[in-house]
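Lab notebook: predicted structure, single chain.

Context: the supervisor wants predicted structures on file for every construct in the current expression panel, including those that have not yet been purified. This is the next one on the list. No modifications to the sequence; it matches the entry in the shared construct table.
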Amino acid sequence: MTATAVGSRTDAVLRQSASLLLGYPDEGLYEVLPLVRAALEDLPGGDPARGLLDLIRHLEGTVPLEAGAHYVHTFDMRRRRALHLTFYTDGDTRRRGHALARLKEVYGSHGWELDARELPDHLAVVLEFAARGDAATGSALLRHFQPGLELLRAALHAHGTPYAAVPDAVCATLPPPGEEERAAVERLAMAGPPAEDVGLDAYGSPVDLGMPGGRR
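Prediction complete. Output recorded below exactly as produced.
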């Protein structure tokens, strides 16, 4: 097996595991934890897998009611710990609706249909698509949202939660952020996500996610 194939498999397992571990800690999640652990333990040793295994041990050692309360307190848009990626790029603006629609188009072009209850920008959904749908397009989406991922990563580490292992693992599957991405993270950290501005025509314009075909 080539190094590329090994890397691709490792990325897929890390992304799928991270996707599952971002689920609300209910009975369904606890049922799949042994499978997730087995998949991670089968990977070559590395910090990303170890971090996710530590999160699994945390969940297994926590009463479900307490785990649920921790989950709800951890992922909070007001504290910039949102799991919906377009929140970082578009905030609570009309433009976000266009971004969500564009994401659905991207998924649909690869035969990927969402559950009606799922929002297409949820990190768990994007990760599952990148792991089990189209790897190249999924990776491109994750790179598009990389500034938001880095901000989420920093916020979760500052919060001191085991869930920080999730963006750590996801970012390990991506190239390190370049100068442009780091600048975008700094702008987000200082100013926060965009706010609605009815006077700007751009908020009503189609959204370019950097996918083939460009802006629609």
